[in-house]
């Protein structure tokens, strides 16, 4: 079993990141809150007290924050996976659970949390309930009254790998006002099975995990049965399974329990490839008290449990009185299962050291002629192929070792059992009745015919006697040196049996006619249900179980010694009758009478034993009494014997022969009926198997349909998210387009309201005589803004200003030399004399110049000393 893992938790770790489906979430960081639980083997750390031997939560916090602050992801699932990957890179982390909360997720509705939880690796059990600790003024505040919900809390099932796709069970939000009610406890029955790997070890690990889960209490674990695989028709052969049943109780809901069992399956390597395929482990919830559940993921009671010996047999071993709600007593159910013959081996106390059980069983089975492979087909193969001698069983020559008697399979037995009517005789009777050398031929013949007559069900007498007490199965007498039913009484499921069959009072209650009623463990676990504790010794890896089949079981009556006269039956009856009065006819084919003195005289070597047909004896029952013949064990004068002894002998021979013929005819008839019955039983089993297969197929189809529907829902949900994203993008684009359009409109409006640009012309005004550049002789030729050559300043100075009507335009004469410092005197004043009356002059400080968009004309002094005069065209005011 793997080392126990402890859980290190870190909760409420907050960091900011840019994760989300929407573009805007990538633009601005938002908070993410992370809860971490790490499954770590702390054994070393506990002994060394060294941080190097464990996982430092400080490192964990750094790693997690780095991921949250790292590259953007669309989904919190992705974020959780990235965190898992980083933390699992630490080899000390065997498993983990990561929850990513997104408290400011962009949702229109009010909410308290959005989160995703992932579990990875080996995460046995569940996370312990953790209380929030509030620190106030540096001290831990007293606990809040309300119970915690959420992470690890009792009302939240942890996310498990196998259930990732299924919708999470919503946790009922508990408020401080909600009183904490003790949830109701339900008994449960789980069935465990598997046939891949070292299954006993895996199943023991599963039991250990279950024990570790809070709110689950294990009451009992059944012996471990090795069973032939039950297969769907046409399925390829598989290795044998190991099956066990667990009884317990839990306050978990059925789905929470399923979550846990599925988690354990996943942790123990369960993979699903094929329906009813080979598996390392399978855990089915068989029942939960009276609960009935039926939904897409869970059906309780388990819909096929009532058909399965590999579930019912181990269950019966620990709870013989159990019933499966809606189906009845498991005892009865078991007797009708088609795989009843498939129980190959059984081991008790297997949890102690499960290692080696499988190998040991393999060698036992190999010695017995089995293979681990079972035969295909829903109809189980006959399983009995017992070792014929004790020596063939490895280790069985050691008398201290417990015996393995494989379960006695019914109703069809592959090899004819060496059981005959003679086997019904007790050994001393048998010895005294056996024909001697030289005894008469007829007696030899009768004896031999008895010897070849298998015991028939019809031979079972109605009254129980010491001879037919349960457990006196002749098969067991064939191996007298091992534990037999006499040493070890079988335990009847319904009625406790006395310690030894011989001590059973004659009034013992008749055994219920249940074919498997007494499949009983010879060694029992300490358990609550009353179970037998017979004498088998406990050694080795677990205790093999002896299985004994009740004689009350009609199906096993092949093996029940009946119908052969023995000391305790016909002769005894006869003696008693003779002593007490007229002989009482018994429902037996023969009476032990007809010893004729003459024959004795003529053939002194003959044994005076004969068997006569009952009707002959009955012919004159009163005569027996009347003639006072007493049956003294040897010599009885039959009342109906006629005068001649020779005639009588011949008549006896003839009657005996006739009787033999009648018996043979009867036997042939019985064989025919038996064949018919077996054929009917086979058909019935086939029908049941077919029905189960059909049910299975329908269940599978339903499961597939639901899976498909779920997938389609998921696809639709993804598509809806995609469309939503697209819609958001389109909306964003629309808003942007609108903004641009609005801008354009505004610009257009401004444009529209703006006066058309005046056509501009430029002219150079002559510089005044006393202007700063007036004396310059080397003035370059002036060019107007329109490129026209206006000649030199001197020439231009002679030219008059055009006859523009400056008064109609707002003309400002600007002297920007005020900034350049070349001339502090505003040019305007200088120019003013030359401008028409009313022309505005003065510095313009509030408008840029020369933009062409001014209301006013700007005149500047230039480097050439000439002043461009820009004026609105009078035709375009
Ligand atoms: N009572 C139940 N116990 C366990 N699983 C159940 C039960 N009822 C329904 N299921 C569902 O059956 C699903 C498939 O189970 P699984 O693959 O183990 O089937 P199986 O063991 O191969 O077949 P079978 O159910 O016949 O034993 C599980 O995921 C679970 O959701
Ligand atoms: N013997 C045996 N056969 C099976 C088993 C099982 O547990 N034991 N489980 C099956 C599907 O659950 C199918 N067949």
UniProtKB/TrEMBL annotation:
Residues 514-526, 622-633 have a biased composition (Low complexity). Residues 153-181, 367-398, 455-585, 606-654, 668-707, 746-784, 816-836 are annotated as: Disordered. Keywords: ATP-binding, Folate biosynthesis, Kinase, Lyase, Nucleotide-binding, Transferase. It catalyses: 6-hydroxymethyl-7,8-dihydropterin + ATP = (7,8-dihydropterin-6-yl)methyl diphosphate + AMP + H(+); 7,8-dihydroneopterin = 6-hydroxymethyl-7,8-dihydropterin + glycolaldehyde. Catalyzes the conversion of 7,8-dihydroneopterin to 6-hydroxymethyl-7,8-dihydropterin. Belongs to the DHNA family. This is Bifunctional folate synthesis protein. It comes from Schaalia canis.
């Amino acid at each position: 079993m793997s080392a126990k893992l402890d859980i290190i938790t870190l909760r409420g770790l907050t960091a900011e990141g840019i994760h989300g489906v929407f573009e805007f979430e990538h633009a601005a960081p938002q908070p993410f809150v992370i809860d971490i639980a790490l499954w770590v083997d702390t054994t070393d750390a506990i002994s060394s007290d060294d941080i190097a031997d464990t996982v430092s939560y400080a490192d964990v916090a750094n790693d997690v924050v780095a991921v949250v602050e790292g590259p953007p992801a669309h989904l919190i699932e992705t974020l959780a996976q990235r965190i898992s990957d980083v933390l699992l890179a630490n080899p000390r982390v065997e498993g983990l659970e990561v929850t990513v909360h997104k408290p400011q997720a962009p949702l229109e509705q009010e909410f308290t949390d959005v989160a995703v939880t992932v579990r990875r690796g080996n995460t046995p059990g569940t996370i312990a309930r953790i209380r929030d600790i509030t620190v106030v003024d540096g001290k831990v505040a007293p606990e809040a009254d309300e119970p915690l919900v959420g992470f690890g809390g009792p009302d939240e099932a942890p996310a498990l790998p196998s259930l990732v796709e299924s919708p999470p069970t919503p946790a009922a939000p508990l408020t401080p006002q909600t009183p904490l009610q003790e949830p109701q406890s339900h008994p449960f029955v789980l069935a465990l099975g598997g046939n891949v790997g070292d299954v006993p070890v895996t199943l023991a690990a599963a039991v250990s995990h279950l024990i570790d889960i809070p709110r689950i209490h294990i009451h009992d674990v059944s012996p471990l049965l090795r069973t032939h695989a039950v297969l769907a028709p046409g399925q390829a052969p598989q290795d044998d399974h190991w099956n066990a049943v667990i009884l317990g109780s839990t306050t978990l809901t059925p789905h929470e329990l399923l979550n846990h069992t599925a988690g354990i399956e996943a942790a123990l390597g369960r993979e699903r490839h094929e329906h009813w395929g080979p598996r390392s482990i399978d855990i089915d919830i068989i029942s939960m008290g009276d609960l009935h559940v039926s939904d897409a993921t869970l059906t309780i009671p388990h819909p096929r449990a009532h058909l399965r010996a590999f579930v019912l047999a181990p269950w019966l071993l620990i709870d013989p009185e159990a019933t499966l709600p809606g189906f009845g007593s498991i005892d009865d159910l078991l007797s009708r299962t088609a795989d009843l013959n498939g129980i190959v081996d059984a081991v008790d106390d297997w949890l102690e050291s499960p290692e080696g059980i499988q190998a040991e069983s393999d060698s036992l089975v190999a010695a017995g002629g089995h293979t681990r492979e079972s035969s295909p087909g829903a109809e189980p193969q006959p399983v009995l192929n017992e070792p014929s001698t004790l020596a063939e069983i490895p280790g069985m020559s050691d008398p201290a070792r417990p015996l393995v008697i494989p379960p006695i399979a019914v109703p069809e037995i592959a090899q004819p059992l060496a059981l005959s009517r003679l086997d019904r005789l007790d050994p001393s009777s048998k010895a005294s009745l056996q024909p001697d050398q030289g005894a008469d031929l007829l007696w030899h013949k009768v004896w031999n015919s008895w010897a070849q007559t298998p015991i028939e069900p019809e031979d079972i007498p109605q009254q129980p006697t010491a001879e037919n007490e349960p457990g006196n199965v002749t098969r067991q007498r064939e191996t007298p040196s091992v534990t037999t039913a006499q040493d070890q009484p079988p335990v009847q499921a319904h009625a406790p049996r006395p310690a030894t069959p011989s001590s059973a009072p004659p009034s013992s209650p008749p055994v219920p006619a249940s074919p498997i009623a007494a499949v009983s463990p010879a060694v029992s676990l300490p358990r609550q249900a009353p179970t037998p504790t017979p004498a088998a010794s406990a050694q080795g890896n677990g205790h093999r179980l002896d299985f004994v089949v009740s004689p009350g079981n009609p199906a096993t009556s092949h093996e029940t010694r009946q119908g052969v006269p023995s000391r305790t039956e016909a002769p005894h009856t006869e003696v008693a009758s003779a002593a007490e009065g007229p002989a009482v006819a018994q429902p037996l084919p023969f009476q032990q009478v007809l010893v004729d003195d003459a024959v004795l005289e003529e053939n002194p070597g003959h044994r005076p034993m004969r068997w006569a047909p009952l009707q002959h004896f009955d012919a004159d029952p009163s005569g027996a009494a009347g003639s006072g013949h007493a049956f003294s064990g040897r010599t009885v004068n039959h009342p109906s014997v006629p005068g001649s002894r020779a005639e009588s002998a011949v008549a006896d021979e003839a009657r005996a022969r006739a009787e033999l013929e009648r018996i043979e005819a009867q036997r042939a008839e019985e064989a025919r009926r038996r064949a018919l019955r077996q054929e009917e039983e086979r058909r019935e089993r086939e029908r049941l198997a077919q029905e189960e297969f059909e049910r299975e197929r329908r269940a599978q189809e339903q499961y597939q349909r639901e899976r498909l529907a779920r997938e389609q829902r998921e696809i639709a949900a993804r598509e809806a998210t995609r469309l939503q994203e697209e819609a958001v993008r389109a909306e964003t684009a629309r808003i942007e387009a609108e903004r641009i359009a609005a801008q354009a409109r505004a610009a257009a409006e401004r444009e529209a309201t703006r006066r058309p640009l005046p056509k501009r012309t430029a002219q150079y005004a002559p510089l005044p005589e006393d202007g700063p550049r007036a004396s310059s002789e080397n003035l370059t030729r002036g060019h107007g803004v329109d490129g026209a050559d206006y000649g030199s300043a001197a020439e231009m100075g002679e030219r008059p200003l055009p006859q523009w009507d400056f008064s109609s335009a707002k003309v400002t004469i600007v002297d920007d030399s005020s900034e350049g410092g070349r001339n502090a005197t505003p040019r305007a004043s200088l120019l003013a004399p030359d401008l028409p009356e009313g022309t505005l002059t003065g510095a313009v400080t509030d408008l840029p110049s020369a933009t062409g968009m001014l209301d006013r004309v700007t005149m500047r002094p230039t480097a050439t000393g000439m002043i461009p005069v820009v004026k609105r065209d009078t035709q375009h005011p």
